[in-house]
Write a structure and sequence with these properties.
Elements (H helix, E strand, L loop, with lengths): L4 H27 L6 E4 L13 E4 L4 E5 L10 E8 L1 H4 L3 E7 L9 E6 L6 E6 L10 E9 L3 E10 L4
Parallel strand pairs: 1-9
Antiparallel strand pairs: 2-3, 3-4, 4-7, 5-6, 5-8, 6-7, 8-9
């Protein structure tokens, strides 16, 4: 038995709607802190021009500096280093980095940073930057630092050269 084109189209639309709802739910789970966890938003404390200069943010208890030693490259992994001062006193146990774009759905681009054993307070990781289909190059790097009781979050601007 063959389905007519209208039924096929309706099933396709239904499948797309279900996938979009599932994607948004999964994304929401990935971006939310643990229930009951306090979230402290930090403001950048320096002129920030990633990837050419480092960016810093902090408060009285915590200072975060983000660096991209080799710059940012589309579609290829590149290293990212995060220096977190106050790490030991606050009991920080997890650092995540995300790439987003204001007003543009870019999918889930989240990366776990790993502590560097020989360098207390230093976390590093490898990041892969997708290409925006509209050609935009104005990214946001979202840094999230977690302890048992709270998370600290900051956004830094990232402009990537098209060349």
């Amino acid at each position: 038995m063959q389905l007519n084109n209208k039924v096929k189209l309706a099933l396709l639309i239904l499948a797309i709607v279900i996938l979009v709802i599932a994607y948004k739910g999964i994304k929401e789970l990935l971006y939310k802190p643990e229930p009951g966890m306090a979230v402290l938003y930090l403001a950048p404390t320096t002129e920030c021009r990633l990837p050419t200069t480092g960016c810093s943010a902090g408060d009285k208890r915590l200072a975060i500096t983000l660096r991209m030693p080799n710059g940012a490259i589309y579609l290829r992994p590149f290293p990212v280093e995060l220096n977190v001062e106050g790490n030991e006193q606050l009991g920080l146990n997890r650092v995540e980095l995300g790439l987003t774009m204001q007003g543009m759905e870019m999918g889930v681009n989240r990366f776990s940073m790993q502590p560097v054993p020989a360098r207390p307070g230093v976390w590093n990781g490898s990041v892969t930057l997708p290409i925006c289909s509209s050609g935009r190059t104005d990214w946001r790097v979202e840094v999230k630092v977690f302890s048992e009781e709270r998370s600290y979050q900051v956004q830094f601007p990232l402009t990537v050269s098209k060349s």
